[in-house]
Design goal:
The protein has one helix and 13 strands; from the N terminus they run βββββββββαββββ. By secondary structure, the chain is mainly β. Strands 1-2-3-4-5-6-7-8-9-10-11-12-13 form a 13-stranded antiparallel β-sheet.
Length: 200
């Protein structure tokens, strides 16, 4: 469950968070204090994870967007180390993502993202503006990803991804089911993963 509390409508400042997002799951609770840029998207975040009401760990996030207001960089800082996620776009679609771990001193993940395949010969227009940063684009934003659905993490890809290829050539395929208006009502990643459903 993700809830949003709107604190301030003054954009582009560093004084107080504009939005506080709280994500609860069983016995854990994570609080995200979100500062928005002048376009209304998250530029900085303090993340606090609580277990049984005690702070278990904290992180910070710094985010950057391109001129089309699409997320291109997210830097997570935890325990003195940074993890940097980057997204590369072409014609409104993310085509590549990478993860660089300062702690490990190397790039730990690189993905290529495709919008057509042997089964999907034409791109599927993303009419519903669905974004799976972790599952679909290879960018692990943890529960911060939920802020996207409140309109706070930039614009969606123009089309829906249908294939994700990892640097070790592992391939994830996505199957989308659309309603009569072209909006996705379900998504399935490979055969062994559970599907997601959407209501409009």
């Amino acid at each position: 469950k993700a809830t949003f509390e709107y604190k301030s409508d003054v954009l582009g400042t560093t004084d107080v968070p504009n939005v506080v997002m709280t994500v609860t799951d069983d016995d854990s609770k994570t609080v995200y204090k979100l500062l928005l840029n002048e376009a209304g998207y998250v530029k900085y975040c303090d993340e606090y994870e609580y277990e049984k009401n005690e702070i278990a760990k904290s992180k910070t996030w710094n985010l950057e967007y391109d001129s089309d207001n699409r997320l291109v960089k997210a830097v997570q800082s935890e325990s003195g180390f940074q993890t940097t996620y980057t997204l590369t776009y072409k014609n409104g679609d993310a085509t590549e993502s990478s993860t660089v771990s300062q702690k490990e001193g190397k790039e730990t993940n690189r993905y290529q993202i495709f919008y057509t395949s042997s089964k999907v010969t034409s791109p599927i227009v993303n009419k519903g503006c669905i974004m799976f940063f972790g599952g679909g684009l290879g960018v692990e934003l943890d529960d911060l990803e939920y802020a996207y659905y409140a309109g706070l993490l930039g614009k969606a890809t123009k089309n829906l991804p249908v294939k994700l290829v990892a640097n070790e050539n592992r391939i994830d395929n996505f199957t989308w089911t659309l309603n009569s208006n072209g909006y996705p009502i379900s998504s399935k990643r490979n055969l062994e993963f559970a599907s997601y459903s959407f209501e409009w």
